[in-house]
Structure formats: structure tokens, C-alpha cells
Design brief:
With 315 residues, the protein is mainly beta. 0% of the residues lie in helices and 42% in strands. It has three domains: 15-140, no CATH class; 159-222, Carboxypeptidase-like, regulatory domain (Immunoglobulin-like), CATH 2.60.40; 230-311, no CATH class. It contains no helices and 22 strands.
Length: 315
């Protein structure tokens, strides 16, 4: 009887390699993940019994919060032509986890032919098992177990808390530290860390900023209502004395073809958005510090535009 390849490949576990701060005097439970066992079987037969891998976790005993979970990959479904690959493990971190330096922070990989190394490069920790031909089919070798390495790196720098208060209060805030993004308005991290923040809400102007923590810091942010139309004063390059007032629903920040709006005359400011009725097709060819340079789409005529916030339309 011909041999059949019946075993598919399992997924690798998630990987996390970082310096983190933990509470002194607190208790933590560390669980090391185990690799899944082999699965396989001949075509048309039920696969041999196998187990999925388990993840590595660090749990804070005081409130049973899992602060790190590097999830294990799942095993394959290995039954004849219906074999399917396993899925990679998922990495999750507690919102209040204080990270100092993150080297690896990634989900596992789905199963692929030949076995895939775990996400921490250069090691077999969490790697998938290979598929080995058998006499009546194929079977998957067991996966490697997870790995947890703990080192005491000394006392951490002072911890400070950064908070953003927004108006309106329901504005969304994202905080980015060392390339990691958090969707929250308060975070505690180490002295000297740089935090990039963004506050946004539909219908309002987005604000951004950067702060380096040297003490507990609070930023009070008031978002400005976004105009219905942004106004630009546009001058004809060949005749700078000729100006037009043009309007865009978004600030002009990218190159390419766009349609700007203007009043019936074009040479007078609009007072409400109802007066902006005509369309002016332009090719934006460069962005300047406070405007843009554009070419009239149908002709070789160039204009230079500057922002005119006093002409923005809110009604």
C-alpha cells in the first residue's frame, strides 16, 4: 500500500524577551510552556492522540493577573487529505506591565513545511516539531518546550507616572514608549523614558506631543474643533497679484491630483460652506512649510498656496 503524508505542521509559540520591572516583596508564579506531542495517522484513519503546546506565563499572585502570556502554538489536524496546519501562539501583556527594554515581542508563527523556529532567533525554544515519514503515513515529532530565563539586573530607575487629561473627555489617546503603543491615558514607566502621545477625536484636530519623564507629569489637552473646510490663499505664479481663495476638507499634506473648492468668483472669501460650490482640479506637486505648489490640471499653469486659518469655515 502506498504511503500517505497525513501529518500537518504545528504552530510555534509566542516569544517575549525583555527587561521588566516587578513589584518588590510580591509573589509571582512562573509557568514554563511545554511543547505539543506528535500527531499522525494513515490516510482515512483517525490521527494518533496528540496535545497542543502550552504557553509560558508570569502571574502576579496578589491579584491573579497574568502579566505575561507567551502562548503555545496549536497542533495540527492530521487526518489524510484533510490535514491542516496548526496556528501560532499569541503574546499578551498586562496593561500595567512596566517594560524597560523590549528585545523580542511577537506572536508565534503558523505551521509551515519543515518546522519553524520559535520567534526568539537562534534558539529552539518553542520550535515546532518536524513531520517524519512513517510506514503507513506520517507523524509529527514532538515540539520543543518553552524556555524562561530570569536574571536580577539590579534596582530599576525611579518610576514616574504620565497622565493626559483631554477635552473632550472621550478623546482617544495613544502612548508610545520604545516602539510599544498603549491605548490609555495614564502610564507608569522609568525616569528618562521618552513618551510620544497622540490625542484624537472625530470632528476635532488631532494633537501630538513628546515628553521625557523626569517627574510625575500631567498634560491637559484641549482639542480644537476641526473646520468643515480649510482655507488657502492661492497666487498665480505668472501673476502674483491675482489671488484665489480655495477650500479643502482636509489639510493638503500629500502629492497628487485633488479637487479644491471655491466660491462662484473664486476671488472672494466664503463665509459659510454653502458658498463653496465650484470645483478646481489641481495636481499638488510639492508641499511647502505653510501650503503647497500646484499645477492646474488642464494647463501648464502653476500656483503657490499658503494656509489662511482666518478663512476656515465652521458652518
Amino acid at each position: 500500500m502506498a504511503n500517505w503524508t497525513c501529518a500537518a505542521y504545528g504552530g510555534s509559540g509566542a516569544g517575549y524577551h525583555a527587561k521588566i520591572a516587578i513589584q518588590t516583596g510580591g509573589n509571582y508564579t512562573i509557568t514554563v510552556g511545554t511543547g505539543g506531542t506528535g500527531r499522525g495517522g494513515a490516510k482515512g484513519e483517525s490521527p494518533a492522540t496528540g496535545t497542543d503546546a502550552t504557553g509560558s506565563t508570569i502571574v502576579r499572585s496578589s491579584d491573579s493577573t497574568t502579566i505575561i502570556n507567551a502562548g503555545g502554538g496549536t497542533g495540527s489536524v492530521a487526518q489524510g487529505s484533510g490535514a491542516t496546519y496548526g496556528t501560532g501562539g499569541i503574546l499578551t501583556k498586562a496593561q500595567d506591565l512596566i517594560e524597560h527594554t523590549v528585545y523580542t515581542s511577537t506572536n508565534g508563527q503558523n505551521g509551515v513545511s519543515g518546522g519553524t523556529p520559535g520567534p526568539i532567533s537562534g534558539h529552539t525554544w518553542g520550535a515546532t516539531g518536524n513531520v517524519t515519514p512513517g510506514t503507513t503515513g506520517s507523524h509529527a515529532d514532538p515540539s520543543y518546550h518553552g524556555y524562561v530565563l530570569i536574571k536580577y539586573l539590579g534596582e530599576v530607575p525611579p518610576l514616574y507616572t504620565f497622565t493626559i487629561n483631554t477635552t473632550p473627555i472621550d478623546a482617544a489617546v495613544t502612548l508610545t514608549i520604545d516602539g510599544n503603543t498603549y491605548t490609555q491615558k495614564t502610564i507608569t514607566t522609568f525616569a528618562g523614558k521618552t513618551i510620544d502621545w497622540t490625542a484624537s477625536k472625530a470632528g476635532y484636530e488631532t494633537q501630538t506631543g513628546t515628553v521625557t519623564l523626569t517627574a510625575n507629569t500631567t498634560e491637559d489637552i484641549t482639542l480644537e474643533i476641526a473646520p468643515i473646510y480649510y482655507c488657502y490663499i492661492m497666487r498665480l505664479d505668472s501673476n502674483p497679484g491675482y489671488i484665489m481663495y480655495v477650500y479643502s476638507q482636509m489639510p493638503i499634506t500629500t502629492l497628487g491630483t485633488t479637487d479644491l473648492k471655491f466660491t462662484s468668483s473664486g476671488t472672494t472669501r466664503a463665509t459659510t460652506s454653502d458658498e463653496v460650490t465650484n470645483t478646481f482640479p489641481l495636481v499638488i506637486e510639492s508641499i511647502t512649510e505653510n501650503g503647497f505648489v500646484a499645477r492646474l490640471l488642464e494647463y501648464n499653469i502653476y500656483y503657490t498656496a499658503t494656509r489662511d486659518p482666518t478663512g476656515d469655515l465652521y458652518t
